[in-house]
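Write out this protein's structure.
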Amino acid sequence: MSEFEDAFDLCRNLGLRVFVSYGNRGLVTTDALVDAMSRRFAEVVEFSDRIRHHSQGTRLGDHLGYVTEFVLAARND
């Protein structure tokens, strides 16, 4: 998680907006990412949709290949 926090800190310190595309099968939970972003940015918005993910030979998602993909957006302005 510290790599995400380092990146969020850098973006905040540079006055940048942040957009993160992340699936529900990642090692870090989406709730943890939203929490880390909320501690650094004034506004965090979460979008999600269930999509069919191309697995490139690795089993992802449910038996039909669907995952929930999140786009997290954060800003201070």
